[in-house]
Structures are given as structure tokens and as C-alpha cells.
Design brief:
Structural class: alpha/beta
CATH architecture of one domain: 3-Layer(aba) Sandwich
CATH topology of one domain: Rossmann fold
Radius of gyration: 22 Å
CATH class of one domain: Alpha Beta
Order of helices and strands: HEHEHHHHHEHEHHEHHHHHH
Number of helices: 16
Strand content: 5-15%
Length: 351
Amino acid sequence: MESLSQQNQPLFIFGMGRSGTTLLRLMLTAHPHFCIPPESRFFVNLEPKYGSSKDLSNQIDNFLTDIYGDPRFREWNIDRQQLRENLTAQKPLNYSTAVATVYQTYIQQFDGQAGCWGDKNPWNIYNIKTILKYFPNARLILIIRDLRAIYASLKRNEKKFAKTWKGACIANVVATTQQWQNLFQVIKHYQNDERFHILFYEDLVTNPEEELQGICNWLGVSFSQSMLEFNQKNAQKNLVPTRELGWHAKTFQPVSSDRIEAWKHELSDSELAVLEILNYKTMLHLGYDCIPKTWQFDRLLKFYADYSQYIYWRLSKANLQPVIGKIREALVTLKTLQLSMTRNLSQNSIQ
């Protein structure tokens, strides 16, 4: 079987935030064949400006100015002059070639033995069409984690997440649910596409060697024991940016499954009730144990009222122009919640 480098197949990792994308990136980067830099969004962010150009040779300086304007990209510490020389050497320099050259320059500086570049970004869940437009032979790994565990991790680690049920935390439940529903639609659309591999976080941390061997077989490379020692390479090469160390401290430790069910004692009854009622069908479909109880619908009604008050408060603080968008967003979201609540209340199978 040909290697990825021979087939020119970059690797893209995506999933919801706090679902294990960083862990998987480090495990793959610990393999001698792969090199995946920290998260950056320059590829998608600059695509509207440069994507339609057949040759960027006369725009290299502008491209460099834009790409180094991304603070996340600057964390890669790529030598600007070296990158400029590498871009100049590409003839013609279309957008996909320019993007690939950026990643290959990262490999050149930090891991010259690797044969395949990759990208890790939870937001790739919204950018699959763009990825496949420029890299039709790309391989994409979607990692899935229990929604309740994702929400608990966000609540525990993100400063902007409210620590109580009131206020912004209500909006966080809605935002997390919307991302989960988008994720589920991606799964439905691409689950039979051979370019996609679906991985469950719980399986990865419980049986890491078996799951990583499966990924390697799918990618056409041999499994390396070094993948299980990712934490050592992270400690040696500082693969996680300094600003992320606060919520990625465990990346310096061996993989562990001790947090799989931590959400059970970290979420309030109200949070758990709403997350499960709004998402139980998709969670069951993906194999997660989730059977809402009748009493939880009372919490959903309370949530519905609180969220309405929260939207009203946000609108009262907004300027005139943003109000229009907020009203539309609120109406759509509230209608969705109302329909979901009505459907769920009619389910006789729920005890």
C-alpha cells in the first residue's frame, strides 16, 4: 500500500472542541511519518481572498503579511524568509500549493523526517467542503465524544463559560447543542466516504493501541509504539502552545480514561436534563446511554423561559444593527426548542 506522502494526501483532524482533537494530534505527531502543527485557521480565513487565483506568484508578500497576521500561526515560529523562498520556488503557485507549502515548511524546520503534513482544528467541521475543494485526496478523521463530557469539560476549562446555570451558561447549552447537531449531520453525510474515519474518544483513551493501529491501517502506514509515548515528545518539543497549557495540562501525561464519566458529578440536574432532552436521539444513535426522564421536561420548560429572558437582555444591550440579527437568531432558536420540546413530550416511550 502506498504511503500518504506518495499519494499526496494531507490529514485533517476535526471534532467538537474538548473532544480529544489535541490528544489525537499529539499521538499522530509522535509517529515518525506525520507532522501536525498547532491549531491555526489561516487556510480557511484566507481562502476568500486568494482561493480563486490561479497563480499567487505576484501576491506572495501580501500572502505572507496576511498569514503572519494570524497570532495562532505566529506560534508555529516558521522562519519568514524560508517560507518566502519555498513559496517562490513553486510554479505555478495556486492556493492549494501555497497552503501545502506552508505546512511543508513547518515540517522542514521542525520534523524533517516526516512525510505527511496535517491540520488539527475543531472548526474544520464547518469547512469540509473547502478542504475537499483544495485537497480532494485528503484524509479526514472525525473524533466524537459524549456531548455531556464535552459540555462539562468546556464548563470546567473555558473562562468565558459561566459557572452557574443562569445567564450566559444558558446560551452555552444552546451553542453546544447546535454544534453537536452539526456534527451529527456531518456524520450522516460522510460516514460511508472512504476518505473519512470516525473515532470515538472513549475508545481512544480506553484502548489507545488498538484504535491507533486501526488509524494507521486506514492510512496505510505501520503502527509506531512512539504514538503511545506522545507525552514525552510533547515535553521535549513543546508541541502545545503556551497559551493552551492551562486546559491541556494532561497532554504531558500518559493517556488515561479516568475522565470519561466525570460529567456525572460535574453537571447540574438542569444542565443534564436539557442536554439530554434536546440531544437524546442523536446520542442514542451514536451509542451513548441517554434516556431522559419525565421530570426533566419541567427543567426544559424552565430553561425555555430563562433563555427567552437571556435573549431579551442581550437585545436590550445591543446596538440597532446587531439587534436585527439577534432577533432572527432568537426566533429560530426558540422555535427549534419549542418544536423539540413538543415532539419529546409526545414520546410515550420515555419513562
